[in-house]
């Protein structure tokens, strides 16, 4: 969980209807080089006439325009239809706009309301699993999400007991199992923490225990402050394949990218990159062509909203004015 984005400088304009030509994977093709003139095609038996030769220069592939409009994101913080710290639920709500019901898994759920990626879905009738090892955060989640499954454990690549670095309230979103990162926050920013011993299990075991997750659920959110690879390594993607995977992909309190530390696991399990909002990266199963196209559309909407708010297009901090 990252601290809120600074207050915006400009009002958000009404975003226009956009018409784009969107390529689906089946619409992209490669031209095949013609055979050298010196080569002679073999004779074709009379019973199997040879098909007409394809043109060597097929030209651009025709595509139909796609019309869509961008929903208004509004200011960050409470009091809007979106509750996440940045664009997370805005993006996912667009991608899953047609799904009246669905299932989510939130690892590092933090809070049922403030900064929540899943609250807007819970209000729509979705249900899922929230996993949060911080005892104070877990109590709020259990009170605010009585119809979800709420687990007070850590997630790693094997069952064990690990040291959890629980930060003071002003920095509680930085709490982590990563000792090196915790000590860095303390040395550089003066944030204090206490050490707790917390049981950890794999994500596969957590989903098995929940008893509510279908064979393929809709989206997985991972916000675990430096423990991403451990979490991904403990998920059996063949048994519990999410349609969309989202991870916070910067070093906490910076815009330094971290996906190079864990992204290979996502790709190896059948996912392709869909979007980077400047703080998080989104991946979709390669078979989910329609969802991938919706990510293309909402990516434009995010860029327009960032420009209106004065946020860097490739990050989450304010665009420098000088």
Q: Gist?
A:
This protein is an alpha/beta fold and 322 residues long. The protein has helices at residues 88-95, 119-124, 135-144, 179-189, 203-210, 228-233, 263-268, 289-309; strands spanning 18-21, 65-68, 103-107, 127-131, 149-151, 154-155, 160-167, 193-201, 219-222, 244-248, 271-276, 280-285.
Shape descriptor reads globular
Distance between the termini: 29 Å
Low-confidence regions: 3-49
Q: Give a short account of the largest sheet.
A: 7 strands, mixed
Q: Which fold does the CATH topology of the domain at 76-154 and 203-309 refer to?
A: Rossmann fold
Question: Which CATH class of the domain at 76-154 and 203-309?
Answer: Alpha Beta
Structural class: alpha/beta
The proportion of strand residues reads 15-25%
Helices and strands, in N-to-C order?
Answer: EEHEHEHEEEHEHEHEHEEH
β-strand number:
12
Instruction: Give me the CATH architecture of the domain at 76-154 and 203-309, please.
Output: 3-Layer(aba) Sandwich
The CATH homologous superfamily of the domain at 76-154 and 203-309 is termed Vaccinia Virus protein VP39
Based on the structure, what is the oligomeric state of the protein chains? single chain
DSSP helix count? 8
Average per-residue pLDDT, rounded, comes to 85
Q: Rg, please?
A: 23 Å
Order of the strands making up the biggest sheet: 5-4-3-9-10-12-11
Give the helix proportion (percent range): 10-25%
List its traits:
322 residues, alpha/beta, Rossmann fold, seven-stranded mixed sheet, three-stranded mixed sheet, 8 helices, 12 strands, 19% strand, globular
């Amino acid at each position: 969980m990252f601290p809120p984005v600074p207050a915006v400088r400009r009002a958000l304009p009404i975003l226009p209807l956009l018409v784009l030509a969107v390529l689906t994977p089946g619409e992209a093709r490669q031209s095949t080089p013609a055979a050298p003139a010196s080569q002679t095609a073999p004779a074709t038996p009379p019973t199997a006439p040879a098909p007409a030769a394809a043109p060597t220069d097929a030209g651009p592939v025709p595509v139909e325009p796609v019309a869509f409009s961008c929903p208004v994101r509004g200011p960050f913080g409470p009091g809007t239809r979106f509750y996440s710290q940045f664009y997370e639920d805005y993006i996912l709500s667009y991608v899953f706009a047609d799904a009246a019901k669905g299932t989510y898994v939130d690892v590092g759920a933090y809070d049922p309301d403030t900064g929540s990626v899943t609250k807007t879905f819970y209000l729509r009738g979705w249900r899922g699993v929230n996993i949060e090892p911080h005892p104070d955060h877990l109590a709020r989640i259990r009170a605010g999400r009585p119809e979800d499954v709420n687990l007070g454990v850590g997630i790693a690549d094997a069952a064990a007991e690990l040291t959890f670095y629980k930060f003071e309230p002003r920095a509680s979103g930085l709490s982590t199992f990563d000792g090196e990162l915790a000590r860095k926050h303390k040395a550089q920013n003066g944030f204090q923490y206490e050490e707790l011993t917390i049981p950890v299990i794999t994500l596969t075991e957590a989903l098995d225990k929940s008893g509510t997750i279908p064979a393929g659920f809709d989206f997985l959110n991972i916000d675990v402050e430096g423990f991403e690879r451990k979490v991904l390594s403990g998920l059996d993607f063949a048994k519990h394949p999410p349609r969309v995977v989202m991870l916070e992909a910067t070093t906490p309190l910076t815009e330094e990218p971290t996906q190079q530390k864990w992204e290979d696991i996502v790709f190896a399990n059948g996912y392709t990159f869909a979007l980077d909002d400047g703080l998080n990266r989104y991946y979709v199963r390669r078979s989910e062509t329609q969802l991938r196209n919706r990510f293309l559309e909402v990516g434009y909407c995010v860029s327009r909203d960032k420009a209106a708010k004065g946020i860097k297009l490739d990050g989450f901090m304010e665009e420098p004015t000088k």
